[in-house]
Please model this.
Amino acid sequence: MTMTREQALCRLTTLCAKAEYCRHDIWQKMLRWQIDPEPDQDLSMKQAILNELVRERYIDERRFAHAFVRDKFRYNRWGRVRILQELHKREIADEVANEALDEELAEDDVTDTLRQLIDTKRRSVKGRNDYEINGKLIRFALSRGFDMETIRRVLNNTEEDD
Model:
């Protein structure tokens, strides 16, 4: 399906008005839509559309990073490592990603969320001894994107509470 520049721009502005998107996500959408370049232009049609969306502030990488960090932590309950990986995958600059993580994630919130996840997971984990159970809990927390230091701190505090 090929579409004109105006059709693509209209469709993308509607999408961007409804939710936050980064440049990478919009570029991928345009690739899937097979937007063809205009033959007599220096700049590709995709790049021109992307530039216009940024200029009109439909796309803002900082705003996207902050919203992404907030949502993925709150709803998906991901840790810093996983969120940072996903931001890198979307080609968000390191300084923007780190700024969003620092501003949106309080250390106490991360610890509390991990403690809740581990307490819930502990009920369903089977093991012959505490060492085996803790190994499974550590793997689970790592897969959720939490760093080893926070995991150890939470596990040590949980064991002391028992």
Observations:
- The longest helix spans residues 107-124.
- Residues 5-55 form one domain.
- The two ends are 61 Å apart (CA to CA).
- The chain has three domains: 5-55, 61-104, 107-161.
